[in-house]
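Hey Z.,

So I finally got round to the C2E thing we talked about over coffee. Here's the setup:
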Amino acid sequence: AKTNSRGSHKLFNAELSQVMSSRARLLLDLKLALDHNQLTVVYQPQFCVQENRMTGVEVLVRWHHPERGMIPPSDFIPLAEQHGLICGITDFVMRTALHELIEAGLLYRDIQRVSFNVSAADFNGNESCDRFIANLSELPGDWSVIELELTESAALLNLEGVKQVLSVLNKRGVQVSLDDFGTGYSSLNTLRLLPIQEVKIDQSFVKDIVQNKQDAKLVRTILAMAKALHLRVVAEGVETHAQANYLINAGCEELQGFLYARPMEIDHLITFIGNLNQQ
Ligand code: C2E
Ligand code: CA
Ligand code: CA
Ligand code: CA
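And the result:
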């Protein structure tokens, strides 16, 4: 029995260390990725369907690993958050996207709003404010062209820090969007405590909106609440015409999802907007 238990103990340790080393390996690779141009950004357009126009783009990070190919952000963003790498990623994403969009002549013309995803760790102390301000310093115009998307769980992890930085940026025009709205524990409290101009209805609500009466009612309630509070609403993860029609009929003004456009690189975005303008 002794050898048996020690044997299984060993096995457990071996498995654990395998898991740990693959995480440690990924972390090491991620540190290198920033310096070796393996990270890029893509843009997913958002639309006001009623007015038939593009309202803005959400910027999403991509990691092209030299051996493993594309690694999705859900695999490395949490790791980056845990190990103090997120600020470097946020700075890279903001600077790269603004540089590309300005260079392409799209910002303030075809694109009136650029949304960035930010994490709790992006908001630690006075230097965070300075970082954001430095990242935005190349903007040739109004800062209301910028929006920060923050999940409620991120906000609650660091409420005081988030509040402090967002209020400074918000006064200078930067917009704030509450991401994955409705999936957290205290969405209403977050709305009450932070300066927020937009909510994004999470894709989990959109997914079954046509079949599931409960989800449909929740979405209608979010829309009514947002209207009363003068918040913009974006529905994300719209994949079918049935979902889009339902959302439009319910009064949702902005839609984002594969039905309209997938996240795309800057060259493709330029072509995409060119085609829109020709229609
Ligand atoms: P998110 O902010 O909720 O972003 C929306 C995700 O849904 C994106 O996945 C997007 O590609 C995907 N999506 C868009 N339309 C559809 C659709 O119609 N159907 C489906 N099934 N999915 C759709 P992605 O790019 O893999 O990003 C996943 C998450 O990683 C993001 O969720 C965000 O939380 C995080 N993330 C991505 N880029 C960044 C970044 O630059 N910084 C930080 N901190 N987080 C990021
Ligand atoms: Ca937005
Ligand atoms: Ca987002
Ligand atoms: Ca989301």
